[in-house]
Amino acid sequence: MRVSDAITTLSSRHVGGGKLVILSCIDAIDARDSRFATSARGYAPTNSYLLVEDDRSLLIDTGLRAHCGRLVEAVTELVGRSRLAILHTRLGEYESVCNTAALIDAIDVEVLYGNQHAATWIGFHPDERRPAMPRSHRLATEETLAVDEDGQRCLDVFMARLRLLPTFWAFDRLTGTLFTSDMFSYVTRARDDGPWVIGADDDDTAFEAVEQHLLTGRYWWLSHAHTEQLAEALEAVFARYDVSRIAPGYGCVLEGREVVRRHVAMVASVLRASRAAS
Amino acid sequence: MTAERNPLPRELRPGIVWLGDCWEVPFRGTTLHSYNSVYLVEGERCALLVEAGHPQDLDVIQAQLEARLAATGLALSYVFATHQETPHSAGIGRVLSSYPSAQLVGDVRDYHFVFPEYEDRFRPMRVGESLDLGGTKFSIVEAVIKDLPSTQWGFDASSRTLFPGDGFAFAHYHDAGMCGRFAEEVVALPIAEMTARFAENALYWTTFTPMDPFVARLEALIARCGIEMIAPTHGLPIGDIEATLPAIAEGLRACYVGPDAGDPPYVDNYLT
Known about the structure:
The structure holds 2 protein chains of 2 kinds.
Chain A: E1 9-15, E2 20-29, E3 42-52, E4 56-60, H1 68-79, E5 83-87, H2 94-97, H3 100-106, E6 109-114, E7 135-138, E8 142-146, E9 154-159, E10 168-172, E11 177-181, E12 197-198, H4 207-215, H5 228-240, E13 245-248, E14 253-255, H6 257-277
Parallel strand pairs in A: 4-5, 5-6, 6-7, 11-13, 12-14
Antiparallel strand pairs in A: 1-2, 2-3, 3-4, 8-9, 9-10, 10-11, 13-14
Chain B: E1 10-13, E2 16-19, E3 22-27, E4 30-35, E5 38-42, E6 46-50, H1 58-72, E7 75-80, H2 86-89, H3 92-98, E8 103-106, H4 111-114, E9 122-124, E10 130-132, E11 137-141, E12 153-156, E13 161-163, H5 191-202, H6 212-225, E14 229-230, H7 241-255
Parallel strand pairs in B: 6-7, 7-8, 8-9, 13-14
Antiparallel strand pairs in B: 1-2, 2-5, 3-4, 5-6, 10-11, 11-12, 12-13
Helix pairs in contact in B: 5-7
């Protein structure tokens, strides 16, 4: 089935008193999707996140091209006449960059954040004219970004220690949300109606599923690596920040401190188990 | 990088043409150059493009490709991207749009999300499968050094050339006249150090992983396929494998910090 014929829907959920909007584009999982095991089936969201303030909003990742129309329409409506900043967590990967040029065409985008000069990494679709580029801001290994004009709402952005490619994680102090890009991305649903935000009552994730997702997917190298440092670094992030929500680039959002603690423990266990095996 | 200063395209061996442009990378107060190279493999009947280019280079690559195909009269029948990162595959849509009979071959997963309008021209291929270009065969081979697990490498039988994507990646110095050269044509390039720097950033996993088994697999692949030339995406082409491979191996091994060495070296915000 071509993706244009597939069940691709956009689910938007407002949390944190409307200050954070979770924009989830839902697709059926099949063997064409390398993010999940070849045999995996069900449904998975690809997520962008909009941090909303009156005068300025910040979008984390701009999603896949197949979702362009719905996503740009939704962001345009949410942002209104205020300005937009865009943070790309993985500038070299499609989930982060596909719709940036389309958004620049549609909205007053003020700045592009990424690990490189982001303007040179976008606008590659054949029917896309390269728009007038906003300012690019090359992120330091760790820095704090102001979401709003007055700098009252802060987003702590840092190079992830647990990563495959250059990847930034970000922590929104206001909503207690940690944006983890490709990590914690393994929770999918059997049905196309979700839920896409998983709380303690919905969380039936098994350790084996986490392990399989990591070791047979993009974290294949863990089984060859010494990983204690990575496990410690992961735990240090959650000791440093009071995380009440994990927001991955794809896969369901993990909601609540109890769920967060459980998933951090599972991922750390996978890391330590793979070290023992190496 | 201005067009006047770009020494590409360059025909490395008969039927293997190097396309692209240098990519300037700020690094600790200086500027290094790397590549997001694209290679054209020319058979007697048709041509295949290895990699589709970084977004920044697409105009340059398109012009180079059009000129070369016009000069040879060959049809571009295939584009093969080693994996689904934008520096390797962002130009797929442009290529398929410009060459309506061309197919995307290799591990084509995920591209239906990115270039959905061309999905009926995606042709999945597995390791061991080949395409007949006329007078030569292009084969899919195992990717030994990779990031994304969907990565595949390519091999051209006639020229004995390996196309290893992220493997054999190292930057070079622009001011020393190293752009557009074979690795063996530049004398002052510390290939081992440059390989280590690239790996610790773009192949971060190598900082946690003993690399001897991977180096052994590289050597086995080179011997098994009878590889005589290596055409990497980010490094300079390698024409004398015996001379250059030891430095590559040294660089890969140098990244590894060991299980008890504490944090890995400070990793700059460098390369992809």
